[in-house]
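The freezer alarm interrupted the setup, so I double-checked each line after restarting. Inputs confirmed:
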Amino acid sequence: MNKRIFAFIDEDAKKEIRRAILKAVAIPGYTIPFASREMPITRGWGTGGLQITLSTLVEADTLKVIDQGCDGSVNAVTMRNFITSVTDVATTTITGEASIIQTRHRIPETPLTEDQILVFQVPYPEVLTTVEPDTAAQKVMHANHDYGKMWVLLYEDTAQFGDSRISHRYPVEINGVYLMDPSPIPKYDIPRLHNNSALMLFGAGREKRIYAIPPYTSVQPLKFEDREFSRETFPGIRCERCGAAGVFFDQVYLDDGIHYYCSDTDFCDRNVAGER
Amino acid sequence: MMLEIEDVSKVYGTGCSDCLELTGNRHGRAICPRCRSVVAVNRVNLQVGANLVLGVVGESGSGKSTLLKLIYRELKTSAGSIYFQADFPDGRKRLNLMELAYRELSIIRNTHMSMIYQDVRRGLNFLFSAGGNIAEKIIAAGERKYDAVREQVLQFSEKIDIPTERVDEYPETFSGGQQQRIQIAKALASSPRLLLLDEPTTGLDVSVQARILDLVKVLHREMGFTMIVVSHDLGVIKHLTDLTVVMKNGSIVEQGLTDQILEDPQHAYTQLLVSSIL
Amino acid sequence: MQRQEQDRELKLEVEGLQKSFRLHNRGGIQVSGFRDIAFKVKKHHFLALCGPSGAGKSSILKTIYRTYLPGAGQMHLYREDGDIIDLACCSEAEVLRQRREEISIVTQFLKILPRVTALEVAAAPLIEKGRPANQAHREAADLLSFLGIRRNLFNLSPLTFSGGEQQRINIARAVIAPRPLILLDEPTASLDPESVQKVLFLLQTLKKRHIAMIGIFHDRNIREQISDDVYEVRAAS
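Predicted 3D structure, all chains:
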């Protein structure tokens, strides 16, 4: 019993997950059901991303795990520790050095390359749930590109609040075909999905779905033709640690007021190290 | 002809080879004595020309609502065809509604044909605002500019006498009559060529009823579309329609000009119906 | 069918027209309405139907308008565009087209929607013909004033009016954009003598505009003032 299976998941299960991944890559934006194995962490805490990472990793890979841009948060650290305990792959915090990056809710500031895979942890894979709870009806709507109700949501937000109220999980259209939930990344990251060089894989363990955006795929946020897609801006703000501007910031509330730091800790570290 | 209904039947149940022959008004029953299937619509033939207003009257169970559902393709016929003629970007087409795939049917329902239900909850999405409901049809018909959608929503809200400042409120905050008017605006927001109304005023106050009927009449005159109104209320039929079809036990017993049906009914059942008007 | 030379003046030709009613709910008894009706109406002529009450005069008008289905006979309508239509056997859609283009009927009773104002009722036929609404309303106002309807009634529903006022609204509606054939069922029955004269004046002007009319007047004096021909309807046995 000392001989452990590489990457925790048995080979038959990996085969099933890899097949789902292949199918997802072949049908960009379409959610593929998969069996979602028991993981030694609770469902809803990143088991979908974890299963994709474990099924995709090989010995030569270098792994990076981030939680909202941070390599050091509890979720990222425990996830990374678990993966290395079952694989012995090298790990890194440097975006450019990683071959597989598992992420919770952010896309790194450093542009990705064709040699990289970005694995998203997804809580709610079905973009239509907010307007149509019936899964059978959702399927029919996807099959027929019938997204009128999502447009109504957008219309109502624009009518009542001047713009979409959706700050994260902003609906995107993949290749002009499927509407997709990009996981709870901020609107700030949405343009990065478009025409990205890296393969992006999405795993929802609790909801048992895998989907993908292959490299260089068109990804457009749902928006009216006469309205601009507006993402978060931080006018006049600089990172108090590295001095960067124009990136996505974490707001830290302390007794003496609000402080701003880069959300992407690796990006911030590179700046401090003077590599930029 | 905009709509041609050819030998259409709808049977609920197992059905047998004699169902249609053994039921219908001639036999005074809609249930097949051999196989106990219900023949809701029995070999109905009907043609409706553009811009006409057709009424369908009959008692509960006469098959009139089923006929309307067949036209809207909420149900499929057991036998027969329903042809719908309309102009499409690539020319005029005569489509058999029974053969349409979901997507073609969506296009028809989003741009050519609308249904108004007695139960507003079937026609309105209560999770969306009044304006959102109207916008849904405009967007479904292909509009992707917010300003254009909003402008049309406000226009329709004025047309149906809903204050524009209330247009972003949700359906449950409106009265029954207002909800029905919002449903009408939603149905007409895509400028359909055919409007189907299933008991549009049943269950509303008499005064509210009259206002709804007036609104439908005004919009019909302004926008120009074909209407099929199903009602058991001859007052509604008299108010709205040019032509009337009388149904009983799934078959058409009489059809003609509405004033002729009301003043010179030929069939015994129609005479009974007309003489029962309060 | 092409029009014969001698028919150039003809508007409506009724032959062998008959009508009976079968009352299914009274054991299927047959009630005779009228039979063997035959007459011709020329353009710019007024044909008066006379005869004892119950002879079926109103029923004849309703049959021409196809509110009643004819039992037998022909009713050839000579349309303004030269076509000839047999109203006795043409389709319902054809009848509706004739009602839009060729024939209107004025009954003793105003049949309109509640909540529509007098002005709107009178102006509607003009608007249907494509006249701008404000112009149509102005013309309707002039006509209603001529007929002695007080201005403060214009924006009320005629259903609240007296019988005589309603009848004048009814006439205004028929003459404001007149169809080439107008059927009048006792249009002056509840009018005062002054209003009667105004209505007759309007009908006379219609004749000059080549409008054919068939009318029923109980008052012999009125009938003689307006009619060019009289057709006697005998009571069906």
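Quick read of the result. Residues 53 and 235 of chain C are 8 Å apart (CA to CA).
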